[in-house]
Structures are given as C-alpha cells and as structure tokens.
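BUG-198 | component: ligand-complex export | severity: low

The export step for uracil jobs runs without errors, but we want the raw record kept on the ticket for reference. Input record follows.
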Amino acid sequence: MTRAQKLLELHQQFHTLCECKLKETAIQPVFGDGNPDARIVFIGEAPGKKEDETGKPFIGAAGKFLAEMLASIGMKREDIYITNIVKYRPPDNRDPERHEKIECAPWLYAELNFIKPDLVIFLGRHSMTHFLPELIISDAHGKLVHRKIPYLPTEYFLPLYHPAAALYNGGMRATLLEDFAKIPTILNIISTPHAQAK
Ligand code: URA
C-alpha cells in the first residue's frame, strides 16, 4: 500500500468515527489533500460551499489565492499538504464552534502524525488558537513559533492570516504575501531530518 493509500484509509476511518454533528448537514467530509511526504502542512478553518460540493479543501476563491501565493515562492499545491481543523462544512459558512474543533481534532492529530511535517502553517485564528490559544493573529502572523506541543510531531509553527480574510483587503493581502515570502528561509532554518524521521 502506498503512503497516499494509507492516508486515505486513515481519513475513511476517522470519517466513520468522528462524532461531529456537522456531519449531518454537510454533503460530505472534506479530507486533507496534497503530498503525504510534504514538509509543510497548512491548516485552515473549515470547508466552504465549493469544498463541501467537491470534497476537496481550498478550491474556492481562498484556494486560488493560496495557489498564487505558493507560486510566488516557487511552490505548487502538489508540494504541500492542506487540511482543515474541522472536516465538515458548518451551515451557512458560520465559524466552527469550539466543540466542533475538539470533536474533529483527533483526526487532525492523526494526519499530522502520519505526515510528520517540519512546519505547520496555521491559516487564520481558528486553527492557530486551537494549538496556541494565547496568541492573537494580528500580533502572531508571520512569526515563527518553536514549541513542543503534546502529541504533535512538529515543533515549528507559522501563523498566517487566512487567505479568505485577505481576499478583499489590500493591506492584509500585502501582509500575507510578505509573510509567505518568509517560508523558504524558514524551511532552511529549521533542520529537522524530515525524511529520516518517517
Ligand atoms: N477556507 C478554509 O478554511 N478551508 C477550506 O477548505 C476552504 C476555505
């Protein structure tokens, strides 16, 4: 079995086990997507309408902007892995509630422990505050955090603004692009022997 097949199996098992009530209103789960050997895992908030319809994360407007930002640092979506803290679309795209994040969290922990990325990038405050509750996104964005978090294989975290929040806000868009430009240097600085750890 390939790593991609094993990861798919992991998703299917967690979808069966997950007790998040959003399952009842969503069309389908939205599994994480991308390279199971990626050095970077991006964690967003929750699927939107397009993601719910297709079962793929970040394929709407925010996903297009994310692809542009990846291209700006010479990366493609196939180089990274992207997922959400909540795997089912909240009705009317409302913010996910704390208990929904907690119910979906074991799934996210399992994904992270499977991929063992060198760097976890939080897209927006929802995923960031689940792991780093004391941080405020307007202060923390673009600043590398080195921290041991129980049950996580990764020690490096980079909070960024959510691309959807930056879509129609020129200032935030420019900040997000500037923060994104730091990613290649950060990857060079953190020297986790990624391949050997697997
Ligand atoms: N916003 C998110 O946080 N996740 C998605 O999958 C799409 C939009």
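Assignee comment: Attached the raw record above. The beta strands are 33-34, 40-44, 81-84, 119-123, 145-146, 156-160.
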